[in-house]
Design a protein that fits this description.
CATH architecture of the largest domain: Sandwich
Protein name: Immunoglobulin domain-containing protein
Organism: Cyprinus carpio (Common carp)
Keywords: Signal
Strand order of the largest sheet: 1-9-8-3-4-5
Largest sheet: 6 strands, mixed
CATH class of the largest domain: Mainly Beta
Number of domains: 2
CATH topology of the largest domain: Immunoglobulin-like
Number of strands: 15
Shape: elongated
Pfam families: V-set
Helix content: under 10%
CATH superfamily of the largest domain: Immunoglobulins
Order of helices and strands: HEEEEEEEEEEEEEEE
Structural class: mainly beta
Distance between the termini: 101 Å
Number of helices: 1
Length: about 200
């Protein structure tokens, strides 16, 4: 059977409820534009398994593995928005999108047929890189304190000043600077302590 015909038959059988389909919840994935992201199947491809990746509301086929005996049929889309972007692991069927762009935002659905059929969905959101923040300080938000200590014949004093740094970024998605996928974190607002010692000595 030709791969395109197999793909068509697969979807007809699934949509008509012929297979006992197990569906997982949609997993949300956030990634910065220009990075790579891997969508994992959490399976290992066995004999007679079929793994299918589709994208978007039209369920466009973008990657597929069909394993028959010792022969693996592997299809990876190289057209349009996915040209030179996709890489599929032939052992697990996991899909990697390289150098991802905003046009790759959307729903990716995984169908695994291995005795039974299971479906997984990944909602991928691609964010533009955050711009470089502009950092300024306001002297009215500064405070200072001083302390002194003595030891033997010398006396030392020091002063500590604390200022709040004001940060802003043009067209940023979040001024609070949250994390992207728990890996990239930008702190847009910070408090800085600066200690400036002033040493004097007095002989007794």
């Amino acid at each position: 059977m030709y791969p395109d015909a197999a793909f068509l038959c697969l979807w007809i059988l699934i949509t008509n409820g012929v297979f006992d389909v197990k569906t997982d919840e949609v997993k949300s994935v956030s990634v910065l534009e220009g990075d790579s992201v891997s969508l994992n199947t959490d399976v290992k491809v066995q004999r007679d398994d079929q793994i299918l990746w589709t994208f978007g509301p039209q369920n466009t086929r973008i990657a597929e593995i069909i394993k028959r005996d010792q022969i693996n049929f592997i299809f990876v889309s190289n057209d349009g928005r996915f040209r030179d972007k996709l890489q599929m692991d032939n052992q697990t069927g996991s899909l990697t999108i390289r150098n991802i762009r905003s046009e790759h935002t959307g729903l990716y659905e995984l169908t695994v047929i291995s005795g039974k059929t299971s479906l997984k969905s990944f909602s991928v959101t691609v964010y533009a890189p955050l711009p470089i923040p502009v950092i300024t300080s306001n002297s009215s938000n500064c405070s200072s304190s001083s302390s002194s200590s003595s030891k033997h014949s010398s006396e030392r004093s020091s002063s500590v000043s604390r200022c709040v740094l004001l940060c802003s970024a043009v067209n940023s998605l979040s001024t609070s600077g949250g994390g992207i996928s728990g890996e990239k974190h930008l702190q847009l607002c910070a408090q800085q302590s600066h200690q400036k010692p002033d040493h004097t000595s007095q002989n007794h």
